[in-house]
Design brief:
The chain is of the alpha+beta class. The protein is about 20% helix and about 25% strand.
Amino acid sequence: MAYTSGDTILDDHYNIFVQGGASSVDHNTANVNTVWGSGTSDKGWGQSGGLSTVSAGSTITATQWVNLLNRCNTIASHQGTTLTAISNPSVGDTISAYTALSGNITSLYNNRLNCAASGTDITTGGSRTGTNTWYTNQQTVFTVTFASTDAARYFFNAGGRIALSFSRSGGTASSKNTGWTNLCSACGTLYFTGGSGTATIAGGSYTGTNKSGGSGTTTTLTTTTGWHDYTAAYVEHFKQYDATYLYTSNYIKVEGYKSGANIYYRVTFQDDANTSGNPSATQDEPVDGTLAATMVIKPPATTYLSASWGTPTMSSTAFSGS
């Protein structure tokens, strides 16, 4: 029997709204527990207090309906989803089918990766600077560590992001140094998110790897690849070349992979330009001053959720190269 006004509301209807299936969990059907609880893959925020189902033949109480409607409102508040309003019933009310409920739950399920606001930035361990004088390349590897793979999954599913930016300053006054300063600025800020689908996070639209700000054109930007798509081997997620006439062979590249509860991002500053951009030159120009790569973990807001993802940490290796 369909869940429509005028028909008898069955325990099966309520259970499907709660867990996706009438008698068992179905993460592939829109429901509130899959979004709220542990879920699976890109579904689930890891929150406790999942709604209970009702046994066959039981009367669905006003309290149970209130719990379901309130949970819908909490999920919507975290996501920033607008629901069709449904008034809570009172004890003793005769409850007809809520015509908007099915559509509301479908919206919550489809918007499960959205997050209306971010929490407090985590910056400890995210700053890597170097003052090496170099000619060919400099490289560092950032490691982001979660308490478990599920903690990482909850972080990204609930709207967490990882941001990465670059800079170069000081050193010798030279066109090569200026070129690297400009390239670092042109790369803007990179954001690594959870999924290949589009998510609205803190007012911005994100799909996989994203670039915000800066200038120029990227050679590689894996907008269809998020944390859920990472493998156990490095994959190039970002690459941008210098737009300066003499140094167009220079680039910044970011590769990433995941292993267990860790994510690794390898950042490479590659200088393939000879002196004054002349291929026949025998002496290269050095790059000096302070080179920096800065990572920031941007967790989801905890206004409506508990931090089921814990507190991820960052570390990085010293710049090395030649």
